[in-house]
Design brief:
It is built from eight helices and six strands. The radius of gyration is 26 Å and the shape is elongated. The strands form two sheets. It has a four-stranded antiparallel β-sheet, with helices on one face. The chain starts with 11 loop residues before the first helix and ends in a 19-residue tail after the last strand. About 25% of the residues are buried. It has about 260 residues and is of the alpha+beta class. It is found in: Cell membrane. It is a multi-pass membrane protein. Keywords: Cell membrane, Membrane, Transmembrane, Transmembrane helix. This is ACT domain-containing protein.
């Protein structure tokens, strides 16, 4: 009887250690995404990393009984290759588009990186797995802050304001933005009709502004000022996702 080489065997303790390491490393990256209120967060990243580790372990050690068969060619990378291409559907689900604003690209990339970390852990490539996790966290936390500071005056953002069609409303909104140092680059008006409970039609419109805002705090202050107007029904900006600026449409009677 031919003895199978030990390279195709792994102890239960080693299996446990690798899967715990995958849970830890995936959780670290997922925790940062969860803290930033992104779609794929703590548990998602843990499951992706743990799943890819399990597949890698299966690919290397799950077919050890067949390595001495003359008609079987063992390839430990065959299942791992399917993880790399197949993980894309999760990333695609994390990418959202609202007008010209696209969000979720970084989260999609982090899910893909976590899958790579899981494959490294499953293959016993611990140094690269830990190093990749460290560099991913540096990119998500430190480089994210540096990028925002560097491009604070160059980013273009959008806000959408729903108002009653009344003279002077546009001027008040433009003044509120200008008072906070926000530069309006483009504006689009979309007519609408607001139907109330008593079936009275109120002429309304949506004002879509494209502008440069120096910082989130000033945009938030401008939105608060805009929403105080009796003719403004709602004000929102995708840039401030996760902050309490989305408001329900308030009842406003025609003067």
């Amino acid at each position: 009887m031919t003895v199978i080489s030990s390279v195709w065997h792994i102890s239960h303790l080693d299996l446990l250690i690798r899967m715990l390491i995958a849970t830890l490393l995936g959780g670290l990256i997922g925790l940062e995404r969860e803290w930033s209120n992104h779609a794929a967060g703590f548990r998602t990243h843990i499951l992706v990393c743990l799943g890819s580790t399990t597949i890698m372990l299966l690919s290397i050690y799950g077919f050890s009984e067949f390595v001495n068969e003359s008609n079987v060619r063992a390839d430990p990378a065959r299942l791992a290759a399917q993880v790399i291409s197949g993980i894309g559907f999760l990333g695609a689900g994390a990418i959202l588009r609202n007008g010209s604003v696209v969000s979720g690209l970084t989260t999609a990339a982090s899910v893909w990186v976590v899958a790579a970390v899981g494959l490294c852990v499953g293959a016993g490539f611990f140094f690269v797995a830990v190093l990749c996790t460290f560099l991913a966290l540096v990119s998500l936390i430190l480089l994210n802050k540096w990028e925002k500071y560097l491009l604070r005056n160059r980013r273009v953002h959008e806000i959408t304001v729903k108002v009653l069609d009344h003279p002077g409303v546009l001027g008040k909104i433009a003044s509120a933005l200008g008072d906070q140092g926000i530069q309006i680059m483009k504006m689009k008006m979309i007519p609408d009709i607001e139907i109330t409970g008593n079936s009275l039609e109120k002429p309304t419109m949506q004002l879509c502004f494209t502008m440069k805002a120096p910082e989130k705090g000033k945009l938030l202050a401008a939105l608060d000022e805009i929403h105080r107007s009796e003719y403004v029904l709602s004000a929102d900006s995708p840039w401030l996702e996760g902050l309490p600026i989305k408001r329900a449409i308030k009842p406003v009677s025609m003067p």
